[in-house]
Structures are given as C-alpha cells and as structure tokens.
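Cross-check.
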Amino acid sequence: MAVKLRLRRMGKKKQPIYKIVAADVRSPRDGRFLESIGLYNPLTNPHTVDLKEDRVLYWLSNGAQPTKTVKSLLRQNGITLKNELIKRGVAEDKIESEVSEWKKDKEAKAEAKAKKKKISRKAKAKQEAPEESSNTENVAASEESQTKEESIDESAAEVKGATSEENEPAKE
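Predicted model, tokenized:
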C-alpha cells in the first residue's frame, strides 16, 4: 500500500484549515486516512504549522511520499534536514546540534528581513522625494552658474580680441 503525506482540508467556507495526514494514495483528498500527524493554518500571519515530529519521521522512514506542499512545510520546520541526517547515519547528538544551528540561522534571516520591511515603501518614498528634488535643484543651479561663467569668460575674451584658447594659458 502506497502512503502519501498530504493535506486534508477542514474548516469553513473561505476559512481553510488543513490537517496533515498519512493517507493511502487511492483515497480521496478529504476521505479516509491512516493517521493525523499535524495541523496547518495558512490564514495566520505567519502561517502556523504544528507537527508530530516523531510520527512524521516514522512515516518518512517507512516510505511515505510527501506532496509538494507538505514537503515545503516539512522543509520549513527542519524535519527534512533531520530525516536526511538520520538516513546518512549521523549520531543523534550531532543531528540535534545541526538542527538547532539551522533554526538559529533561519531566525536570524527572519529578523533581518523584518528589519528591512520595517521601513515602509511610503517612508522610503518620502525620504527619496525631498532628496531627489533638492538634488535636481542643486544640479540645475550649478549648471546655470557654470554656463554663466563660461559665457562671461567668452565675452571677456572677445572684448580683448583673444580666443578662448589663448585665454586658458593666461589663467594658469
């Protein structure tokens, strides 16, 4: 009998909650299942996943194949990593240290992402808008002053009867 780890939809209309179950491949999505091994709520922010880790590892070791979504959920919780380390025959204490290190890295990445998200797009736009307008005004003012200086230098050179090439060595 082929077993899959998959989602079983529950909850009200427009408010899905999923049970993660071990079920026979031939049974329908919301039909008969062998064992309930977890719960997944996609409506919370961030989504909630509660798993019976030992039962998930049991089913994976017995050949159960997770669906794409369940595989993604297992990967997010570090169970896939733990299963791979068990398959390789790594010692139990080393497995625990690897998984805890992975979780710390994941939390650090989540915190960094949260810090970046803190500054909203509107705040960024407000910060950039005054800088851009002041920068464009400064650039325009400096260009105008440069063109005025060049026109003054050229008119002075014409008055003296010298070309602009002759005027440049005199400045040095």
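The radius of gyration is 34 Å. Residues 121-160 form the longest helix (40 residues). Passed to J.P. for a second look.
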